[in-house]
Amino acid sequence: MKKNFHKVSVLLKEMESTQIDPKKLMFFIYENYEFFFLTSFDEDERYDFILSLLPTLKKIVERFDKTKASLENYLRFIISRNRKTWKQKKFSNQIKDKLIEREYTIALSFDLTEEIESSFCAENISVNFELPARLIKILPILAYKASAYISREQILKIASISNTNAEEMFKIIKMLNKNLETRMSNVEKLTKRRNSAYLKRYCYSYEINLKDKNSIYYENASKQNEKIQNRYKNSQKSNLSTQIVTPSYLIAEALGVSSYSIDNKLRYVHKMFPDFFKPRNSNN
């Protein structure tokens, strides 16, 4: 643990001589929450607290002077001071409400044009939004029944990993949620075919290792692949046609990162903005 803490200190030191991005700093705190003594919060509360620091982090970046104190000391002081305030429940709830409203109103009110929506092409959208094509290709499945699975933190995390911003992710997902019933039907047909491109894409991370039986990674890749197949079978048995595999697993596999880094438990987007996920022909 001490070694990891030292590594975090070194990274913070390196940041001091670069142009610091407030959002990247926020993700850095989130990824290294133990270093900043945020273990007393549960997962959801911790994320909300860190997100609430964004306006303060912007000010820190603007006024940062390493001759007065290190970035590490700045952050420790700010986090410590805000943590005490956050513990006052009434105040923290008020911050959460304002925070969510401010961060997502613009994104949620944005409508993409009919032309973009009706001519969905992974490659074109990948270029337009500067997102990895692999990620774009699985977004229809990610958006499939999005109201049940998409979380605010997942979207922010994807935005961080794919070097884009949360607003653009919302725009894409909003576009994909148009004509929801048609897409649901198409995806359901795909998932019923065990050897579909969808399932093969889900196994993307293991394909190379599975080809070479002499590879030192072959055994582990085989086990992982078996887990994927079992998860698929179990979901079919359970009749969960809308949950063949969770989007967090899909994203993790497509991006080649651990599912733990994406699969967090925040569910505020659907709770706060249910209209965002309604299909166009909804009567509600």
Please estimate the helix content.
55-70%
The chain-level structural class is: mainly alpha
Topology as H/E string? HHHHHHHHHHHHHHHHHH
Main beta-sheet strand count, sense and barrel state:
none
The total domain count is: 2
Q: Look at the structure and give the mean pLDDT.
A: 58
Distance between the termini: 52 Å
How many β strands by DSSP?
Answer: 0
Gross morphology: elongated
Quaternary structure of the protein? single chain
Low-confidence stretches: 99-120, 134-150, 176-184, 190-206, 239-248, 250-284
SS summary, helix count? 18
The proportion of strand residues reads under 5%
- What's the alpha carbon Rg, rounded to whole Å? 21 Å
Overview of the molecule:
By secondary structure, this protein is mostly helical. Helices cover 66% and strands 0% of the residues. It is built from 18 helices and no strands. Helix 6 crosses helix 12 and helix 9 packs across helix 12.
Short recap of the structure:
With 284 residues, the protein is an all-alpha fold. The chain is 66% helix and 0% strand.
Question: Which properties best describe this structure?
Answer:
18 helices, disordered C terminus, elongated, 66% helix, 2 domains, single chain
